[in-house]
Amino acid sequence: MTRVLIALTSHSQLGGTGRSTGFYAGEAAEPWTVFKQAGYDVELVSVAGGKPPVDGLDEADPDQKQFFAEADLEHTKTAAELTATDYDAIFYAGGHGAMWDFPGAKELASLAAGIYENGGVVAAVCHGPAGLIELKLSDGSYLVDGKNVAGFTNAEESAVGLTEVVPFLLADELTARGAIHHPADNFTDQVVTDGRLVTGQNPASARSTATAVTAVLDKK
Fold first, then answer.
1. At residue 220, does pLDDT exceed 90?
2. If you placed Cys at 56, which of 24, 47, 95, 152 could pair as Cys (CB 3.0 to 4.6 Å)?
3. For the whole model, what pTM was predicted?
4. What is the bridge-based pairing of β-strands 121-125 and 197-200?
5. Which of 11, 96, 127, 181 is an active site residue?
6. What is the DSSP code string of 134-185?
7. What is d(CA 80, CA 97) in angstroms, rounded to the nearest whole number?
8. d(CA 33, CA 214)
């Protein structure tokens, strides 16, 4: 059976705003639904393990209802507890929390690199590509170097009023690592597939990004 990991942030504070953050519910729930409907075995991993913080919860959303009913969010594992060769893909869900802890999550990056170098898929949506910024392959190169990617844009960060709150601008850091960032209009569905790297721009892209992952996996 195809096995897929969804990676979640463990960071709960939105900078110095006094507001809470975490993983964005729809960006985990919609991919969970897509992967389950494809017949995959889906598991969760988080930076710190245990119960990760959640943002953007919509209790009336059917995908979120299914996700929170089925996924064991109380006991997520850390990357150190997992083995790359057990998985066919890893999907970094977004949420602003990812901007703080995904880049420094070395064990998570190592797990993702192992999945990729074993022929698997690495995917990320919205702020999830923050997990790709320090993701290096065994030859020392950045995974995103020379790759076409999507991710939350500078214009979108400005539109939500958090340009001065986030620790960096995601699109700029991806570009600094050699990625070719493809921004679409604010909050429109945008997915970029480059080989076995699949990235989406924003929450509206979560389902499409997961569907694109299934398309890559189906070709394998």
1. no
2. 24
3. 0.98
4. parallel
5. 127
6. T-B-TTS-BTTTT-EE----HHHHHHTT-TTTSSS-HHHHHHHTT-EE---S
7. 20
8. 12
